[in-house]
Structure formats: structure tokens, C-alpha cells
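*** Residues and shapes ***
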Amino acid sequence: MFGGYLSEHLASLPDMEILVAGRSAAKARAFCDQHGGLPVTLDIYAPDVAGKIAALKPHIIIDAAGPFQAYGAAPYRIAEAAIACGAHYLDLSDDAAFTAGIGQLDGPARAAGVLVLSGVSSVPALSSAAAAALSVGLADIHVIESVILPGNRAPRGLSVIRSILRQAGQPLRLWRGGEFETVTGWSDRQSLSLSAAGAPPLKNRWASFIGAPDLVLFPEHFKARSVLFRAGLDLKLMHGGLGWLAGLVRIGALKNLASFARPLKWAADRLEPFGSDRGAMRVRVAGKTNTGAYEQRVWTLIISSGDGPRVPTIPARVLCRKIMSGDVTPGARPCLEAFTLDEAEQALNALDAVTERSTQPFTPLFAHALGPSFNQLPPALQDLHAVIDVRHWRGKASVIRGTNLISRLVGWLVGFPPATPSTDVHVAMQRTAKGETWTRRFGRYTFRSYLAPAKHNAIGYVTERFGFLAFRIDLAASAQDLSFPVSKGTALGLPLPAFLLPASDTREYVDEAGRACFDVSVALPLIGKIVGYKGYLTPV
């Protein structure tokens, strides 16, 4: 599909001779009769494929076949054949391992004086160009998030379908908050609306986690704390149906979905008249600027008239021109920042496309709740509460617990850890649509609380919920510490009387080593201490 669109474009240019290669001579001839180019019969799995490629004397080889996840024991046979005959090589891989591994050919490519790039597609080529443009002036990148939402009426190739099905329901590693976590492919469904000036918006499209080279390459390349990638299907029937099938894989009822690629493509083709011919891509970068402010930058692409499948060809269009003009540096590497976003947008002008870049200030929960007094806090505490996506903190803590029956029962209901003189502690803070989720793990014991901004976004307090209990926390910041006194509380939404309201003597401060420290003590009137824990945290 993508190779066809790319060949069609390149064959229309006056200074390029295009050879359209595949296993089927009849299909190649039919394509070239309609779109131009010269047909070539070529099987990448044939033992003499390198010799046949060399006999063609190509200047550039573009592999748009795939799925690259299934290239077997010798995945780089075409790239190696290109190097051997002195040809430049590009591929449209969407597989993280394949794209990241192309660097093993860097020495031979440099010696041959040729450029070898993998991932010359929407990801990571186009997404990295967008991320690079959006990252200018950011000193600390907290999250890079990309999403691709194709229209349902856009043609879809079997290789892309196989690529998605191989991942649906399988474990997927995400880099979040400075460490890897494992999620399920095609999980964490979100409803997104994307807009750009000059085009009608796309509303309420579903998107879920799926693998992409960005997840492996961006953390190191951009020094980002979190990297996320989602994709979606236009029709909720198809998106939700794939989620249901992914669930069967996750629980072990099915080994994988790749073997269902042809029947699922058949079903999807029957549904092609429904939905839209409009799709979108968005890249979002959020972090701390060189001036200390927090910003969110977004690049949005809205594509119409069924031109969505042509977007993955844009990087190859740009790079073929660069190669023809000699504007390349030899070597083998993933296609990261191989061209600028301006160059990509210029090439996108050939399609029915609208792009937009925007910047908005981003205020973390505690920075909003404290207002100007947030800046009075020691830098270590400001950093502790700079939660834009996910932050992970580790340290040591001691825990004491109340000893009477009622205090032990309350502590058990909330999930407080047992008493210990010293234990490892891990705190994960995750930004959500409504606030933040704090997951505290003391040794093997875990409890969570959910923090939200004040009603009507008032300044001065946050609310914190532990299960059916919720409390208003009146924050007080100074140059030395941050305190968390409780002023109100509810149980199952009903106000707690004063004699049942817990007394919280909680503060954060910075020790001599510059570490963020916590000292928490919670007691109930007439009952006494429920729990107390104190220790230190360092960022992951």
C-alpha cells in the first residue's frame, strides 16, 4: 500500500527512474502500466536476492514490504544487499526492534559511502521531526506522546494489519517517568478530539497503546522522562472489537492474532464505506523550559480526501530528494531528525492536509494549588511536585502504627503498611484527567490516594481521597517546607463531624543531602495514632 503510493509519486518526477519490485510479475506490470515505472520480479527471501539487486544497479533501494517484525533470522538482507552494491537504503519499518537494530550496519555503510535509514515513515521519521521542532527551548522533557488516527475509508494494507495484530494483547514496554513499565498492546483506550485551524475537527476518536519505534528510540535520543504512542481505528466497532480480541490474547485464550489477518482485513474491507476518509496525527511534547516555566507544545496534522495512507510516504519523498542532491551523511541509523518539520510540511502541501503548531502553558497540580507561594519552596520540593505525566521516586522509610484495635482496623481499611524500622519505599505520581494518583509502596505493601484540585480551581488546597474517605488538605508553603493540614473530610460523600476528623501532622522538607523528605503522622480523636511514616525520596 505505502510502497504503491510512494512509487506512484516518484514515477511522476522527471529525474528518477523507478523500478517496482515484488514477487508477482503480473502485479508489478499492472501497477506500472497504470502509474509508471519498470516492473521487476524480486523475492527478498530468495537465496540470490543480493545478486539480482546488484544486477539492477540501483542508486536508492526502498523497502516498503514488511511486516518487518517477521523478517526472520536475517532481517537486514536487503539493507546488506544495498550496501554491497553501493546503493542508498531506506525502509518504512514500524517495528521498534528492527529500526533500532539497523545501527549494526553503520560501519559497512560508512565504508561504502551510503546512507542506510530505517523507520522512514510516520514513525519515527515524521514524529521525530515534529518532536525535535517542539522541543526547542525545553530543558527537561517530561513526555513525548504521539497518536495516529487513520480514517476508515482510507485503504489499508495487509502488512500494517499484521503489524497491529502481532502486538494486540501482547506485553508492551513503555518508558514512563524514567523507567520501563509493561502494559498490554491495544489497551488504555482514550477518546480524543483533534483540531487544526483550516480543517473541521476530528471528534471522539478512540486511541489505544500500540508499539512503535518511538517507544524505544525517543527516551535516549530526546532525554525524555516518558514516551507514549497510541493509534486508533475510526469505527468504534472495529476499535472495540480489536480490544476484545486483544483481551483474549492477554488472558491466554488465543496465542496471537496475526493468523487472523486475512479474515479480519476482509471484514474491515466490508466496513470501508462507513466512517470517514479523514485522519489525523498528533505529536505532543511537554516539559520545563529554559526559563523554568512549564509548557505543552502540540503539532497536529489533519488529513482529508483519503490521503492518509500517503502520509507515511512523506519522509521517503523528502529523503529521496536529499539523496539525489547529495545532502546526506553516510552511515546506518534509525531515521531520527533526518529532515526538519518545515521540510515535511512543505512535502505535505501536495496532499489535502492541514497542519498546526500550538503552545500552551502547563501548570502542575501543586503549582496551581499553591499559586505564587509554590516558588517559595526549595527546588527539591518543587521538582517533587512537577508531575506532567509520571514521576517515580525511591528511598527509605520507617513506619509506626497505632496499637489499639480501632486504629489497626482503620489502618487496614486504608491500606497503610505495617510498622517497620526501615524499608524500601517507591512512590509513583501519575497525572490524570482529574488530578494525580499517588501510589506508595513500602516494601511489598502498597496503598494509593487520589489528589484533585480544589473546587472551581480555587487556590490554597487540594482534596485527597483514600477509598471511601476524602479530605480537604490546606497547603502551606515556605522556604523550608510544605505542610498538609486536614481541614475537612467526608466518608462516602457525607461530611465527617469534627470529632471524627483525623489530625494530620504532615510535612515535606529537604535534608542536608538535598533530598526530598517526608514526615507523616495521622491520628484520630479519642483513638490516637493511626500511622506515622517518615523517610526520604530521590528521583528515578
